[in-house]
Fold these 2 entries.
Entry 1:
Amino acid sequence: MKQLFFAIIAIAGIASLSAQSAEEKGLQIAKAAEQADLGFGSSKVKLKMTLKNKNGQTSERYLETRTLELTEDGDKSLIVFNSPKDVKGTSTLTFTHKVGSDDQWLFLPSIKRVKRISSNNKSGPFVGSEFAYEDLSSQEVEKYAYKFLEEKGNLLVVEQDPVDPKSGYTRRVVTYNKDKGYRIEKVEFYDRKNSLLKTLTYTDYKLYKGKYWRALTFNMVNHQSNKETLLKFEEYNFDIELSDEDFTQVALQRAGQ
Amino acid sequence: MKIIYIIFVALLCVGFNMHAQNDDTKKTVQEFELELEGEYRYFYDDALFEEQEDHFPSLAIRPEYNISWNKGYESINFKGFFRLDVDDERTHWDIRELYYQKAKNNWELSLGIKKIYWGVTESNHLVDIINQTDAVETFDGEEKLGQPMAQFTWITQKFGTFDFFYLPYHRKRTFAGDKGRLRFPVVIDKDDLEYESGAEEWRQDLAFRWKHYFNAFDIGLSYFHGNGREPLFTFDTTGNINAFYPVIHQAGLDLQITHNAFLWKLESIYRHAEAQEFVALTAGLEYTFSNIDGNGLDIGLLGEYLYDERDELALNALQNDIFFGSRIAFNDTQDTSILIGGISDLESSSTIFSLEASRRFGSTWTAEIEARIFNDIDQNEFILSNFREDSFLRISISKYF
């Protein structure tokens, strides 16, 4: 019922875009994007992360991520490292919250320790990559303030200002594709001095179950350091039917053993 | 013979790996890994006791094999270990893990040899009691021997996680041999230590733990009844040492509060045996300045207070001490990290400084440097005074296959 309500709001909102402020329009686009992705339940995907430094030298990591969709609060996710081999089995469990800081646990396989870690470090790099922790966490509508910027054909450009002062960004400029389920095509990140820091482009989109768009390639370019990180995803598995029991500290240890 | 057995197991695993599958939804997934490590420990002060060596080149091998099926909800996991060292007692092998596991809905069962870790603090691990410490392997006591067990875990969303352990066999602690450092004047042969229990190592032990989290709080309550993991040293009127493994009851509490960049930590135990009863606690905090340079540099500050009612009989000599340290993580592609710190006795001059640094080279090599410096150790320290000339540097290089 609640979902239907939001859907009506979103559709009604988009139908009457001209009568709205840029803030309202931006929020409605974000909600429409969230609405379009509702109901996927759970997924699992393997990916290869390639880190490229400014001299073009590369190093690779293999990961697997599992996601559980929650509607009343943010999603739960579990990430397992498969390589480099010295960190194989290192895993993180994250409970995203729509409001307030996320809960996060780290599993260290060498000593079998589960450690609750601070989610304070949003702006720090994820395993030496150009992705910050906040770039990879579940994108909840409540985490930003919005401003519609422009419409270019089927593309809608929206500015998103992070609510959390601990974010590493003053703003993100996000390009949505309204004809393709409001999937995101590109994000530009502006640092705390409001200069362009990074650009993330999503390509190789694939439609799953006739509804869910997933980009199989993410390319993050850091314009200030000239470093790049490329994520190449294998096929998503949406039939895995994961539940809350697959996102516990017990499951975290099992995933990394 | 033991070595041949390990090599046999390793070869068997390589054989299995040839048929490895990758589709984890229907089929089985197998993985085999091998770590080879070369290590060199150098004790730069003249030995306190005769026969002790200064240089300890050493080799270690760590094979690992996993097979899982039923979407990963059932698996068999193996982790072996073998070390060749100058000290005959440090030359040892172990099955760190070899267990079958099945998980279904809200429960999980493990049968076999396994390692369990409990606790939150960094400088001391009071609550952690399931596995025996591999005391010859590392100085910090974080390496453990594999423990035979049946573990049943029941997970509830509202009331937390309940862990039940049945531990049918006790493993004795190994102490350094004649040539080894970090020992007492008399070499302790582990086979000379006896048990309070008539059933000896076959005493059937039990343990229980409840673990839950609410918002910023992570809490664990545990109870253990069985053969103690630490031997108890007592003295008769003529000064003779009598050492044995007592039957103990131990209740433990571990608590962490995670608030912004602060981690507040507390571990405490109450242990009761016929010959001994005491309370110990470790409490402290960790604060991390993250991404200082905008490039991922994290600097964490650690401070902990350690108390042990056993006073000078505390085996780890941490009876009324302060730990201070810093963890520096560069978050670079090589995962470079450094941990420096010290433990200082509040009642004497004794301080132990430590440094641990590690870095990856390429994608399959890692290097580690460790230093432990015993500084101004009080001659009256019952245990620590034996180690006062045992400051050392360790370098190790590992290759992963």
Note: Chain A touches chain B through 41 residues (CB under 8 Å).
Entry 2:
Amino acid sequence: MAETSITPQVDGHGSAPPTAQSWLTGHPKRVVWMAVIAAFGLFWWFGKPWAAWAFKYPSAWKWTINEQITAAMEWLMNDATFGLFTFRELTRAISAVIEVPYDIVLSLLSTGFLQGQGSQAVQIVPPLSWIAVLVTVVAVGRYVRDWKLGALLGLCFLYLVVFGQWESAMVTLSSIAIAVPLGIVAALLIGLLGYRWTWFERAITPVLDLMQTTPVFAYLVPVLVMFGFNAVSAMIATMIYATPPMVRVTILALRQVPAETVDLGTMVGCTRRQMTWKVMIPSAMPTLMVGVNQVIMLSLNMVIIASMIGAGGLGFDVLASLRSLDIGGGIESGVAIVVLAIALDRLSQAMAERTHGNRVKPAGDENLVRKHPYTVFCVAVALVTGALGFTWGEIQNYPEAWTITSGAMWSDLVRYINVNFFDELEAFKTVLLLNVLIPFKRFLLSLPWFGVVLLLGVAGYTLGRWKLAVLCIVLSLFIATVGKWDKAMITIYLCGISVLAACAIGIPIGILSAQRERLWRVVQAVIDTLQTLPSFVYLMPVIMLFRVGDFSAIIAVIVYALAPAIRYTAHGIRQVDPQLVEAGIVSGCTPFQLLTKVKLKLAFPEIMLGLNQTIMLALSMLVITSLVGTRDLGQEALIALTRARTGDGIVAGLCVAFIAIIADRLIRAGADRMRSRLGLH
Amino acid sequence: MAERGPKLVCNSVWKLFGGGAEKLLRDSGGAPSAEAVAGAGLIGAVRDVSFEVREGEIFVIMGLSGSGKSTLVRCMSRLIEPTAGEIIFDGQDLLKASAPEMVEIRRHKMGMVFQHFALLPHLTVLGNVAFPLEVQGIDRSTREARALEIIELVGLEGRESYYPRELSGGQQQRVGIARSLAVEPELWFLDEPFSALDPLIRREMQDEFLRLQNVLHKTIVFITHDFDEAIRLADRIAIMKDGGIDQIGTPEDLVVRPATDYVAEFTKEVSRAKVLSVASVMTPLRKTTPSGGYGGEVPVSAKIGEVASLMSDNAKPFSVIGSDGKPIGQVTKDAVIDVLIQG
């Protein structure tokens, strides 16, 4: 590399902290930072001959914790015993318990109730007919809010029927119907304990942090090893993935209950149990329902990934299509998941709004039909259609001949685009790859790990004193010592490029839309929808256009991570105190000055938090893109999954989590300092 | 007014926030100075408070924000554990009561109204009012029947099935009042019940409160930061400042004989005619009826403001009637005008 390339590269890596610093505290710190960066640059440029160990982590020093974990896991599964029963028996027992309700729901929705084993099985009661399910969801929608919601839900399920996704969708719905309530109950109980005992909350907070930052693939491996390749494992993995936010929401929601309400509970003489279930939880219900909605959405997000360890249904269809590059089929199943997600999202949101109830029904009316009109009607429809279904099969099962498929259309579209625009797309991709992606990747890989660790330590010290410095150093050292430095750098390269691009697109959109009410409403609707989509869905169009590789991965990550960049920017600008804006106008600011000198400055901490969220989403998406052939930590975790090597998966996952935690803590510390400087909050 | 016995007695109640509060109290013989408290890094929310609340009276604790009045009322119901002292309710020291005993006392003998209403958002008016009874495990039809009675008493009939969010602030506090009365408490705490309401509604609610008390004759501890409200409602007032009590007395006592400059600050702006009763300007009954006879009769407990308009068109003195219905003195127009002029 030539001399000229040093400056931009050093800047590319290090310019954000120093400018942020100088903006923060003025000149002297900037000088210190320049010195540190200069020292780092000199070491990077001249240090290699006499300190090769600092550039490539010596394999002799490698800490083989991955093998130890794998061995420990094997011991746990093969030899561990609690005396009365073995560990393996324990895991089997857990899955047997979860399997019971799952089997019932699955029988009801999909397979029917069977007698006998395997292919000998005889169906004694058929599953609910498609008509019955359709009628039920409409009735639920009407009951929860109004006919409009009922119609929306009905249309969503009608899509599943008409496009031939019914069977898979019902399998997916069954596992959601079990995983979500179990996850909610578990989260509620853990959250309650966390609320009651501060020490418990302190103990679980880092665990929650890890659970939310560790990529799914990492814990799929131990779940797979412990519970086997089946639907129950998939549900357990889903719960692990979907519940941590609900735990946090629960603790927060309980904390938000006004002190007076708690006093009221004490004054009327509530016992502890009455206090919890009659005062605290009902008062916290609106916030709790936000958590419930999150559990549902995250569970749906997990549908496809969970099919890698045995969930059937729509997720399996998508994964199978993706592997066989059947774009049309993949899109159709993917859209089915989206449709299901939209239906459940709207339903749970409506339920959240409804928690404060309709009018109480007059007591004393014992007439069953008048008391529960919807339930009675749905049961009646189920029985009638079930009975008629024995004679007319199309009432029981939607006939295949009536289904429509859009798969061929999608495949044709992709073929058309590839035939007509192949050169343009390819040129675009190649130019970016050669001029931006590959040089940046090379640059990151050439950095001395030792120097980077120290640099992170300095950054941690300046933003958050010793505690943060030690955290940054220990976490980044972990990545080096377990021998994942190069893979981590590739992860950072993919993530960094995507985040930069997402911010470059998202922040201007956020700025523009923040100042125009109508545009903001449109943008908000779009990003809300984008965030409802399972992450996998982003992969499909990208692969169609750019095939597998880093470039496709980056595009998918950018689109996925765009929403927080827009949202936080717009939110930050919109919440600037209107008096300050007026003060700016009165002082004679032009609109541009008003934006750059008042609004953006005050919105900066918020935008930083948006950046933080963007990084977190990018990292979580990045792991999934390893399915389309990136060579980073995500791929390590994926390989570990296919080989069922627990240790490798967990170590790779922890490395990703640590990258996320370092970025998160540094940015948060920076944003907090800025906030207190600006006197916000 | 007949002399009534004490219902609730506070003896040297202390509440210090911060670590090592008990130790400081022990070391200083139970009465550390304000400097010692601050020096130990503690906050003296309630400092050495003693008073008694008599059966059937409205005892108002008045203080500005941060004076410790809310902490004090929470100490009395043990929502907050006092650091030291005695709180004697019907002869029993509440601070020595076990947790289950406290639950029983709160369930049957205490009611509390909160500043921000503290209505449960998921329950209807009926459900909220019946809530204390529900907690006691009383069956649904009994508790709802009782709740309906009280809802009627506070003037909310017809709104039983409304949710709190569908009511105005004044209506919400009526629900809060009804709920606190559902268990027929002997001791009724009201923690700034009308502070969150608009001035006009506040006045209406004060009248309503006085009307209820005329019917119910509860023993009441009423917290407020509004001196006018205190004057209007109180039988006796305790003025709190920095966690301690500056003065306890009837509204008239405070106005006529403020114990400290701080109390005088409050009473300075109070219209005397509203506070002083006829008794304070009355002259003893003369042996002979004045030459022109009396212009009329006024009760001894009437406030001067109330009788002023009556006397303004009449130059003759008025006869003052005692609580037993017999004349005990007379009051002249000049004496009344003197008070009115003082403001």
Note: The CA atoms of residues 120 and 135 of chain B lie 13 Å apart.
